[in-house]
Amino acid sequence: MVELLAVIAIIAVLAGILIPTVNLAQNSMNRAKSKAVFAGWMNALDQYKQEYGYYPPGFFNSSGVFELAGNNDKFVRALSGRNANGTINTEVRQVNRKAIRFYTFSEADYNDNNQLADAFGNPNVYFVVDRNGDGLIERTGDVFRADALNAVPAGGIRGNMIVYAVGGDGIDFKDVFSWD
């Protein structure tokens, strides 16, 4: 009986060591997957800009920020050249007049609520572009949500576009930043 209790105790200790390691590995995998998806979306937006000379109309506000949540249909139309059901109509032509497919969306791009999201299922994804062309996205409150400012270096971020996802909607999502 004592031997059985000793074996159970050893298994419990090993499980206590292993479970956090597995969770950490899964978080790392989801973070890497999110960054890969973000890179694909940024590349598609860059291709769009190369084709048309500008980013999709109505995407970025005056601070250079585009919030994906609530704008899924517009995002899909602009980057895939089609509606979510694969059709092309006037709404598609308003944001992608040549109906060019810059990105092919898959089920992996969506969360359980059929929203575009990062690999953690977080739909709170923000795109930020360099508005003045100096190659620096500055660390300001009108560009970054307050809960993301601490992740931004004091001197800003070098680049023409970045993407980040932060928690919200009362759910504790993992934060993902394209620049770290």
List keywords for this structure.
180 residues; alpha+beta; 4-stranded antiparallel sheet; two-stranded antiparallel sheet; 3 helices; 37% helix
In short:
With 180 residues, this protein is an alpha+beta fold.
Number of helices in the DSSP assignment: 3
N-to-C SSE series? Answer: HEHHEEEEE
Choose one word for the global shape. Answer: elongated
Please give the oligomerization state of what you see. Answer: single chain
Tell me the Rg in angstroms.
21 Å
Low-confidence stretches: none
Number of strands: 6
Structural class: alpha+beta
Mean pLDDT: 88
The neighbouring-strand order within the major sheet is 1-2-5-6
* Helicity range: 25-40%
β-strand percent reads 5-15%
Task: Describe the 3D structure.
The chain is an alpha+beta fold and 180 residues long. 37% of the residues lie in helices and 11% in strands. The chain has one domain. The longest helix is centred in the first third of the chain and has 51 residues.
Give a topology summary.
Elements: H1 2-52, E1 65-67, H2 72-80, H3 90-95, E2 125-129, E3 136-137, E4 157-158, E5 161-165, E6 176-177
Antiparallel strand pairs: 1-2, 2-5, 3-4, 5-6
